[in-house]
Amino acid sequence: MRHLLSLDDLPQSTLIGLLDAAQSLRPAALHRSAHRPLRGHTVANLFFEPSTRTRASFQLAAERLGADVLNFEADSSSTRKGETLTDTLRNLEAMGASLFVVRHTHSSVPASLAAACAEGSSVISAGDGRQSHPTQGLLDMLTIRQRKGEDFSRLTVAIVGDIRHSRVARSDAQALRTLGVGELRLAAPETLLPERDDPSFAGATVADSLDQALEGCDVVMMLRLQRERMDEGLVASLEEYYRDWGLSPERLALARPDAIVLHPGPMNRGVEIADAVADGPQSVILEQVSNGVAVRMAVLEHLARG
Amino acid sequence: MRHLLSLDDLPQSTLIGLLDAAQSLRPAALHRSAHRPLRGHTVANLFFEPSTRTRASFQLAAERLGADVLNFEADSSSTRKGETLTDTLRNLEAMGASLFVVRHTHSSVPASLAAACAEGSSVISAGDGRQSHPTQGLLDMLTIRQRKGEDFSRLTVAIVGDIRHSRVARSDAQALRTLGVGELRLAAPETLLPERDDPSFAGATVADSLDQALEGCDVVMMLRLQRERMDEGLVASLEEYYRDWGLSPERLALARPDAIVLHPGPMNRGVEIADAVADGPQSVILEQVSNGVAVRMAVLEHLARG
Amino acid sequence: MRHLLSLDDLPQSTLIGLLDAAQSLRPAALHRSAHRPLRGHTVANLFFEPSTRTRASFQLAAERLGADVLNFEADSSSTRKGETLTDTLRNLEAMGASLFVVRHTHSSVPASLAAACAEGSSVISAGDGRQSHPTQGLLDMLTIRQRKGEDFSRLTVAIVGDIRHSRVARSDAQALRTLGVGELRLAAPETLLPERDDPSFAGATVADSLDQALEGCDVVMMLRLQRERMDEGLVASLEEYYRDWGLSPERLALARPDAIVLHPGPMNRGVEIADAVADGPQSVILEQVSNGVAVRMAVLEHLARG
């Protein structure tokens, strides 16, 4: 593995190897330790979309491995001056950076930077367009595995919400397929379902309602509803959305009693998820966040070893 | 002490303990040293108001103790996306942060984050609304003590300027009372005086004029005049304000010859303070800034020890 | 040398000493090493103009020498609140910073901060107005010397483009003169040539055309064309500019076969320089960027030694 742009083409053995590495990095993930394998490496965070958690998570992952970190955000970068992104990347390479974490609204950007970078460099997508958010997919798999064990073929998983526009959903579905998930159900209003032939969701079934999707489920993966969907006319109102697709405690009772609930954050409480679920005993949402640092450490270390 | 939200409820012994700790940290405050008691801790600076000096001061304090630092500013945070501040805090906790430095225009925010955070976490107010700016209060006390000794009962202190809107004035008044200040005088135009029953200023007397407030004073604490006060009609003009309430060398001569002048910065030179005073021999304004790093180190270390 | 504000008044021996130091720092420039001579020092980057590469280059230079770094950018600084820049500098000094890297649109700013700072502090211009960008001049000289040797008297150098508004051109011309360049040619449309009596370009000749400037040249220094020049009516169109003043492979063939091409970045590809030149074998543009870190390390270390 030279870059991490998508989970689509990642062999099962590589994916499981990254999860194993992340699992063993869990103790090192939350506190600076003596383990500094990336000392002498420079990680550049190129975020062309605003982000709190993902940027912070990558920064901490890099620092806890001993790397130097450069943070760039869209409006402070000289892309304003008309320089190409490729030139920005090459300049940072010329200053010694070799690991590039890239978030961009256009899904082609990380791949085109990966194609343009020098031989010793690696690009990690931190979210590109609607297409892919591979480290989120990995951290979701790690979280599921910690609670449900390594045999994904016994699991029924539901992905619920704005699947059409979600890179998280695509990376999750790809990883779940790679790990041989038993059953993958999609639940969303008509307007937010993916195209029928979207290959990311091959093998998944579309549920008629949220209740149907939750019935007997082991893992419920909720998605954020962007408020733009209302302006675009894809959702009538937040109240109606919550009534039909929001995860309330009553609805969650339809799933298995030991079902777990994931959410990639940031949450719209009262829109896609009730407070009592978000903060309840079945929620693993904060474990996802902790696993995020460990997963990003595993990916950075794997790519830095080349 | 679990959090530092206000100086209001801080026992005298704790306050003096923090000043003693800060005093002994002075040599370590200005240069990175081998003293790294916060190694392995992560400090998150959550600034929802712009700030140069306070944010830099907390960042340096944390780094000089060996902590990792995450900086967040309002417009780069995902609060834009509608996430609650509590969720932001919990996410950062899940990434390993345990010390939260919070500045916000709403005075309830640091307290509500303190109520929501995990057991091992601490919140430090870096300025909330008009209510409180406890580390500024502490650094002002340290600065006074360095010049005037430990017996505050012998001191006459004047606070001058926009007291009504000032969290600095409230924290200073609380700390001065805790330390048993001899006399506290308030001097401001009618429109900028605090409410009569504001408990932060209990025991203080209101001077009729700046001259009266300065007469025989040991310590003069000047406040910044926000330019908004003119738009709000609370101040007629900057010229008039300087004429009536600005600290000129002539006016300062009314105080004791060894009186010291403090200002929390940023200064409006020529509005609330004359250049000759700001840069003169009685000014301790830059000592305040140096003490600020030491005080913040003392607070962070105290809270990290739990 | 106490500050680095311009290359104008820099003695040849000092300039060569900095180039030698930078050359020997090249291996340390691209990766964090055990060489940490600035440990205990704090570098403040005060950027009042947006910048990706220069700010990143100074940050990495400081960190690779072991310094602590504070980054300030215009809109997050309290200059918004009306504080003077001098007060900002003095506050940062009071927090322990002693090396100030300053970029500002007004060319007088770095010099006035240098005049105001404390005895142990140093100011480095990172670009001021149109006047000076001394570390860019140094890194350009280092890049030329690496390729062309130490005897500048044998070299013919052309500076091409928006010379009138370019601080890079001024610093380059000053350094080239100090190093005894053989011939310096300027090539630009009438509207972008410097004033006839601009002392920075004393001794240079003005070419009638780009072809004439390139003829037999050893070093071609291209400049960025700011898009504002079109709005200002100084350039008719980007197409016309490229036709008359853009460096195409055909034009570059007029120079010596071993001529090198420099550009300070960010490049406007297809405006002042063709892709085939920017990415071609004669381009040393990325070497300039790598040399930039080494040069800034040399300058910081030189000034920190006092």
- Write the CATH fold name of the largest domain in chain A: Rossmann fold
End-to-end separation of chain A: 8 Å
Which stretches of chain A of 5+ consecutive residues score pLDDT under 50? Answer: none
Shape of chain A: globular
The helix content of chain A is 25-40%
The fraction of residues in strands of chain A falls at 15-25%
* CA radius of gyration of chain A: 19 Å
Quaternary form: homotrimer
Order of helices and strands of chain A: HEHEHEHEHEHEEHEHHHEHH
Total DSSP E strands of chain A? 9
Structural class, from helix and strand content of chain A?
alpha/beta
CATH-level-2 architecture of the largest domain in chain A: 3-Layer(aba) Sandwich
The CATH homology group name of the largest domain in chain A: Aspartate/ornithine carbamoyltransferase
Physical arrangement of strands within the biggest beta sheet of chain A: 7-6-5-8-9
Which two chains have the most extensive interface, and how many residues on each?
Answer: A-B, 29 and 25 residues
Indicate the mean pLDDT of chain A: 94
Report the top-level CATH class of the largest domain in chain A: Alpha Beta
Biggest beta sheet attributes of chain A: 5 strands, parallel
Number of helices of chain A: 12
